[in-house]
Amino acid sequence: MINRTIVRTKVLQTLFAYYQSEGKTPHTAHKELLKNFSNTYSLYIALLAFANELTAYAEQQIEEAEQRAKITHNTYIPNRRFVNNKVAEQLFQNRQLRHFIEEQHIHWEMGQNAITAVYRQLIETNVYKAYMSAEQVSYEDEKRIWKKVYSEIMPNNEDVASALEEMEIEQDAANWTVDLDVILSFVAKTIRRFNEDSDANTPLLNMFDTEDELHFGEKLLEEAIAHREEYMLLIKDHLKNWDADRVAYMDTLLLQLALTEIIQFPDIALEVSMNEYIELSKEYSSEKSYIFINGILNEILQELRKENKIFKQIRTK
């Protein structure tokens, strides 16, 4: 699940915290990076658990409607299609998911407003109305409901973001709201992998795509800290028309990390590294930082090539 794009993000976040705090050592930074990876996976688990929370809330709405019908002596015939959704049931029974929920004490008690908001938005959608009114539904129809929830309703939802902010404090985690949209895409991917025959032993996504991703992150952090002074001098030498003290701190950090990868990881194509850090700058820095970062990196790379300190070439199609 955690690919190199996410790894770079976690290393950037770890470096930012490392340089902002006094008394931290490379060893403590390494421990913090591993914790950041674990926090990311905890968010994945929490979002998968949301399916059960949402169906439980729907069941509660039915029970309350039944009680009101009894009091008013009205006839009420509940539609339990959503609360009996096959995909939600598979997630609820998944042993791996239940193990992580219990082990990490993940719950949505602080997120009732988010559950209510998502449910109210869901029941107003055409997808939900068609699903609930159809004579019969397929397993793909069951999946489609959750695609709507995870891919369209939960992203950019203020109530969900607020709930996650409270939950991450309780979990001693960080950056859950920052990572939300990316991890939601992995939740949707997980559900796409389920089928009608998926049982309680169906595997979830692993924390890392491969062990190489973990080792890449550890080395990237280690080399960035070890070569910081060298790369910062290199960056400052190329800020010809810029006041170094006024350049955004995040921009210099992105430049430092990009140089670390470009120089210390010869097997990674130059255009891959360039593109990744330009995209990171769009996410974590100011609106036009990517132009600045791209320009400074190109200047530094030209110098390094002339000095035969780097031999990477940009691949052409």
Brief account:
The chain has 317 residues and is mainly alpha-helical. The chain is built from 14 helices and no strands.
Helix and strand pattern = HHHHHHHHHHHHHH
Percentage of residues in strands: under 5%
Largest sheet: none
Structural class: mainly alpha
| Residue-averaged pLDDT | 92
Query: Would you identify the regions where 5 or more consecutive residues have pLDDT less than 50?
Result: none
Q: Using DSSP, what is the number of strands?
A: 0
Helix content: over 70%
What distance lies between the first and last C-alpha atoms, to the nearest angstrom? Answer: 29 Å
Which word captures the global form? elongated
Radius of gyration, in Å, reads 24 Å
Helix count? 14
Secondary-structure blueprint:
Elements: H1 4-20, H2 26-72, H3 86-93, H4 95-104, H5 112-122, H6 126-133, H7 139-153, H8 158-170, H9 176-193, H10 211-226, H11 228-237, H12 249-264, H13 270-284, H14 289-306
Helix pairs in contact: 1-2, 1-10, 2-3, 2-4, 2-5, 2-9, 2-10, 5-8, 7-9, 10-12, 11-12, 12-13, 12-14, 13-14
